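Feature request, filed as a ticket because there's no other form

It would be nice if the structure record came with a short human-readable summary line next to the tokens. Right now we just get the raw output. Example of a typical job, pasted below so the devs can see what we mean:
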Amino acid sequence: TMTGGRVFRVAKYLENQTFMCTYGDGLSDVDIAALVDFHRSHGKLATVTTVRPPSRFGVLDVADDGTVEQFREKPQADGWVNAGFFVFEPGVLNYLDDSCVLEREPLQRLAADGQLVAYRHEGYFQPIDTLREVALTNELWAAGEAPWRVW
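Raw output as currently delivered:
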């Protein structure tokens, strides 16, 4: 089942209340209480947590003649990306069906309808999508330096 379909299938357990979702493959120190307060403050159907991750690569500014003008090792990305921590009102379920991909039509339609608001998180965020990211996360935990550990 795709991401939106999974949310759609649990609708009967939500008891027509505000609910939260996450993908489960990212670590963050998002202040959940602040996220929920922000969601309640704007009155829209959906809030998505966004982050500005560092680039995976060093960036070169290169002149027309090939001279490197500046080198920036893994700078902060300019745009905001979906961190995968959501707060939804029950009305979001009207945008879903059993086979939809949450990140495609449902979120795109919510945005087009003016019902999706971004909560900008400036703190720690780490996706865990690759073996390299798993190793990094395990190393941080073993060293007692897990920035996502807020308890």
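Something like this underneath would help us a lot:
The radius of gyration is 18 Å.
The longest strand covers residues 81-88.
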